[in-house]
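Possible regression after last week's pipeline update?

I re-ran a chain I had predicted before the update to compare outputs. Posting the input and the new output here so someone can diff against the archived version. Not blocking, just want to make sure nothing changed silently.
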Amino acid sequence: MTTLHEPSPGRARRERLSLTAEGTSAATFGTTDWGLVLGASAIWGASFLFIAEGLETLAPGLVTVLRIAFGWLVLTTVRRARTTRVDRDDWPRLVVVSIVWFAIPMTIFPIAEQWISSSITGMLNGALPIFSTGLAALLLHRLPGRYQLAGIAVGFAGIVLISLPSWQGGARTALGAVLVLVAMMSYAFAGNLMVPLQHRYGALAVIWRAQLVGMVLTAPYGIVGVTESTLAWRPVGAVFLLGTLGTGVAFVLAGTLFGRVGASRGSIIAYLIPVVALALGVLLRDEHVEAIAVAGLSLAIVGAWLTSRAGR
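New output (post-update):
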């Protein structure tokens, strides 16, 4: 019998030759799917608050390497992450995943949050489904379903409204917004690459190894940041939560979801992240958010619902 972690030889060969793959289900999201979405969204929505808290005394590079290290350590406690064997032929893809899912975006976010608020950073994550679905369509040579296309259109309108205040806030503020969108493109590529790997090995094994590679790649930047940082309980504690929950637990939830529903529909996680990021930024850091950005957030939520509908 074929399982999620043991696909048929024919399917494994096809997926090894392709850059992405379909999810195992095209049905409307069920209880498990929504549980994965809400779990990852809640954790990742809070991650931008944790980054902002960490940047109070820690340099951006140190925040980056510590969060990956803490995430890797928490997954190390799970035996299956360590013992699942990954074929040598799949390591090049895994290394690319580590670069585009960990090294690049996790370097970008602390830099961007020096110039834009955690609320806006989180809200701009709603761009992910647009990039992810478009990239999947190119790689799989097929158009998304009509509901998914409508979701992309509505979500895109929401992202435009969310980002408008950033473009009016000066060069550095605009640069911060651009960097976040670059990180979203990187995440979109990673999500598509992740699907075939998740089908063969499960999310735990792939993410644990990708984090290890990402930690090595970002270590020089983190070491430089040590001299520019001051250790304090609150920032270090925030980065600890950022790593164990945001880089550990949430990535496993997201990787599992991508394997089940595909990278396009799985990326609706990013439409719900802004809700959490907005609430925490306003309530805990007294961040100001323009009304037009809140209106954009409403459109992004509608786009998430449309994207989750059944069909390809």
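Follow-up from reviewer: compared with the archived run. The two ends are 26 Å apart (CA to CA). Marking as no regression found.
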